[in-house]
Each structure stands twice: as structure tokens, then as C-alpha cells.
Amino acid sequence: MPELTSGRRLDQPRGQSRFRLNIDPDSFGRFTERIARFLGTGKYLFWQTLIVIVWIVLNLVAVSLRWDPYPFILLNLAFSTQAAYAAPLILLAQNRQDDRDRVSLDEDRNRAAQTKADTEYLARELASLRIALGEVATRDFLRGELDRLREDLDAKPRKAKPDRTPTGT
Q: Alpha-carbon distance 69 to 61, whole Å?
């Protein structure tokens, strides 16, 4: 069997020789959320409107600065590029928010289930205490029983008991 001249073994995977760009998805997501949040502000709309007005005025009035004549094709291209990037960024931000909402909903559901289980446990404990207290003699019950026993004892005639003192023999 011929030997490989490159020194590479066929029974082991190749190392990564290509350039790989490592992007932290969470950092990228936070960055895109900040951009999407900014795109929805009045500040962004103000600055974009101002840039468009300046662009159109300079291209209509300043004869020497006309880089984008009347149909404003370059401006339309800029808007198209902006829309091509803004839409996915906004969708990414919405997906991340949906994921956070889903986690929060799961936590709320688990908390509600735990609260329900705790409440049911406490209700069972309270019911068992009520049953146990129903079987316990209370102070009033004992007082009543003792009063009745005393009345019974007072009502019975007492027999004279013989005196058991030793007689002088």
C-alpha cells in the first residue's frame, strides 16, 4: 500500500485550514436589537428625513454637486439597501424577544404550578388539622364533663363508711 506523502492520515479528520469568523450569536443579537430599537425612534426618522431633503436639494439646486440627477437612482438604491438590512434586523430582534417571552412564560407557568401545589398542600394540612382538632377534648368540653360528674356525685346519697380504726384488743 502506498504511503501518503503529505503526512496526512485518512483515519483522522482534517484540521480547519479555512479562515473562520467566530461571532458570538448573543453579542450579535444584542447589537442588532440596539439597531432595530434605534430604527424605530423619532430621532432616526428625523435624521433620515433631513439627509433625504439635503440630498434632493443639493442634487436639484447645486449644479456642480449633482452626483444623483432627478430620478435619484442612487438615493433609491440607498433606500433599498437600508430596507434589505433593516427588515432582517427587525425580524431577528423580534425573534429574540419571542424567545425571552417564551422563557418568561415558562417561568411564570412553573411558578403558578408550584404555587398551586403549595396551596393544595396547605389546604390538605389545614383540613387534617381541623379533623384532628375535632377529636381533641377542649377545655369547655372537659369543664362540662367535670361539672356533670360533680352533679352526679352530689346527687347520689353517700353511704356511711365504717370507721376502720383499730379497736383495743
A: 10
